[in-house]
Write a structure and sequence with these properties.
- The protein is mainly beta.
- Among the domains are: 124 residues, Immunoglobulin-like; 80 residues, Immunoglobulin-like (Sandwich); 101 residues, Immunoglobulin-like, CATH 2.60.40; 106 residues, Immunoglobulins (Immunoglobulin-like), CATH 2.60.40.10; 101 residues, Immunoglobulin-like (Sandwich); 87 residues, no CATH class.
- The chain is built from seven helices and 61 strands.
- Strands 13, 14, 16, 17 and 18 form a five-stranded antiparallel beta sheet that branches. A five-stranded mixed beta sheet has the order 20-26-25-22-23.
- The radius of gyration is 52 Å and the shape is flat.
- Pfam families: DUF859.
Length: 883
Amino acid sequence: MATLTWNPGINSYSPYVKLYVTQKSQSISGNYTILEYSLKLYRPRQVYSSASKSYNIKINGTTVKSGSTTIGGSGTKTIASGTTKVYHNSNGTKKNVAISFYQEVSITWSGVATGNASKSGTMDLTTIPRYAKITSLYANNIRGTQFKINYATDKTIDNVDYSLNGGSWQDTHNSSNYFYITGLKPGTRYTVKIRVRSKDSGLWTTSGTITITTVGLSTSNEPDFDTDGNLTINISRKSTSMYHDLYLYFWHDEQRWEEIARISNVTTKGIFNFTSTQLNEIYNGRVQSNKSNTRLKIVSKWGSNGTVQGTTYEYGELTIVNANPSIDGVTYKDTDTNVQAILNNDQLILRNKSYLEVTAGTASSQKGATLKSYKLSIGGNEYSIATSGTSETGKKIYWGPLDQSSNQTAVLTVIDSRGNKASRSFTIQVINYYEPEPVNYSADRLNNYEESSYINAELRRSVVNINGNDINELYIRYSVESGSTTSATGNNSHKNGIWQHVDLNEFIGDHPNDKSFSVYLEIKDKFSNWLTITMELPEGIALLSFLKDKIKVGVPFENLAIGKSHEGNYELEVGGNIEASKNMVVREHIYIGDNINPSKIYFRFPDGNIGFESTQNYDNCVQMYDWGGNGVIWKYQKNTNRFYITKNLTVSYGCDLQDRLNINGYIGSPVHINRTTNRTLDLINATPSSNDVWNSKYNSNLLIENYNNALSFIVGGTSNDRIAMIQVGHSAEHYAQHLGELRLNPLGGRVKCGDDVYVTGNMSAQSITDRTPFFIGDALSEIVNIKSDQKGSLDHNTLPDFVRKRIKIKKSEVTGEIAPRINFTRFEELGIKISEEDLGNEVVEEEARDIGGMISLLTVAIQQLNNITKQQQKEINRLMEVI
């Protein structure tokens, strides 16, 4: 019982309030207590008050009664009473149950304000009997096929069950503090737990697990040994009357157990001393590996000639040792007869010219193995060649040309069928060498005009140093057009590392200066073939030509020939570039080509910049025109301040566009932007004049190539979402079945996305790589819980948390609607605001499945199934062996 009292303490006859809480009854089966409560007002003297006063009573955190009452009068008044149910903990306890009350009083007593009555406290409830406690649990009388389980409890029980090795509960049909478990196997480890039922509460109490091993057959150490020693078996027997026959096996390459040896009537120790015959049986039966599984069969008998009690097995591993193959030497030589005709030393290997041949000495395998291959390693490169048999002499490995610049330490390794190796290292003498090549060359006329002609060239060849002498030599010859070949001689100039530079200034004859000629220069050294270098001897160009009615500057000679000197109407003809160190003023027209008479224009160079300026204000005040039929190529329209290009535009170094670039393409001429520098391309609007463009990149509407690291497109700003849309095929929806393909990096390279990728249709890939963390847990239990929903689809709510994923996407992507085609710029110019709802861009969340995570989950599940299968197979094997 608990009592809470409130008293204002003004004087001895002040009114006060009490709450009484008592245990009325308890339910063992329901595990709860019925509490009875009563809130009473005590008035030693008359209380004058007619006002309604509120109250409430709380027990175990719940308001069990509330309302209002009057407090006027004298004597004891029960304000409220009743019962409430309080549930106990699973063990029957219930401590510190909170109780409290509140009663509004708020009067003046003997001139002093009483305030309101409130009080809180706790009470402990009587523990309800719940479970019987198991005070002891142990096993004795352990035999080969049964043992006795003993137990004790702190209260009366009416039933006992047991579980063997985690299996289902078995009823013992008694409660006499012990029982037997029978039908067991010898030498077997068992786990046992019991549960007892309390007679008064009917509740079960489960014990912990105890482990019992039945009296078993004899065992031994694992049969591990290597072939250079013996094998000692130590027997652990359960009775001194036990004798044993031992059988030793190894796992043969033919996938079967092969018996090696046996020993009879062993008590506690047996030693296998292997004979050469037994070892050869191992060697010849295990030629593919140095390791083999072993099995020891132990047959237990009662007495030396007694009854067999049973058979046990122990498993181990044998190792074949000291079985590496051998190789007694290695040689090499250059087999290229052309090179050796010059070097006369087959131990010298000329880089990329000599043909290297390596010859192994005698190689032999050991202990039943066979030779498998040779591996030659030179300069980080390897070459392997197969072989066979148990012994071989003079195996040749043809390496071929050796691309190394200095002496190399080579290693020849012979490998046998077990993977054992033997190696020999040797040094290869390498002479660095490159074929001769030109550094620079030209065919020139005397004074750039005369008929006398020369070849001017700087050539180089490799220095091939043998015993301090350079034995190499450069050979030179030339021919003009289809004429005969003539030898030439150069002069050694300077050396640079391995290179000997050779200068050539060779007179090649007088050739008419009114046309050009093809000149062929050929070079080789002692080790190379002829290398042909093609040059052009240009026509003669006179510095100044004074003709009857004009002067020509730098015009090719052929244009000064008879019959051509008076062509054209120009007083000055320049055959090359014009450079003016100061201003060049044209008083009249500037003519470009023939028969062109544009509006007056002049060139000016303010602050080093080049500009075009017109004296007129016509619509098309500056333009370039092609009289060959292509019309206007480009024009500048001053009144609109726009520059138009109607034909191809090639930008070699970059283009900064402050406004937009509108290009109307046509078949075979794409918009081709070749970016080689870091420039900004703000807006491209590329419109083809025909849809019939296919296949080649030169038929693309928009072709953007970049030779730096990256090319970026940024669509929209920061105010709201933007969409960068690429549509392949016809823009009309009723042509949707004719949509083509969008190919990203068809020739290779990565396509990288910085955020999620949402595909509304099917996605096909040759391979998909994920970087999902590995799943840790019981995958099989998780997979069992996965179900489908009422629509026949996967119920994502049943997926494990590891593979569940929520993604944010546009509503139009979920519904399959096609996003509207909207020209944002045009609407912004008209002052129209486009909302996300208009675009179908409202963001929604969708439940999804992480495929990478699912693969990790399935991987773990398969591993679990594999472990279960192995355990089951192991138990099957054990049962078969016992049988």
